[in-house]
Specification:
This is DUF1508 domain-containing protein. This protein is of the alpha+beta class. The chain contains 2 helices and 4 strands; from the N terminus they run βββαβα. A 4-stranded mixed beta sheet has the order 3-2-1-4. A hairpin with a 4-residue loop joins β2 and β3.
Amino acid sequence: MARTVTYSIVDHPDGRFAVVAASAAGSVHWRCGFLTLAEAERCVEDLRAMMAACGAPLVRWEAERPGMDLRAMLRALRPPPQ
């Protein structure tokens, strides 16, 4: 059985959004640079469809994951191209 994947939509001080997904095994993947919350939510719906095809449920994670500062991790990345 596939393990649960959790996700969070993270807002940046510049007004953009990122979608961060973490597998139960601990790998973290993200996509940055969404201009609106609606764009980020559409990305989540695409991710939900892919995870459903794999049999893995996608669950929203409202709080920070233990030992992981998502905002600090995303700040360390270069800003997306304009």
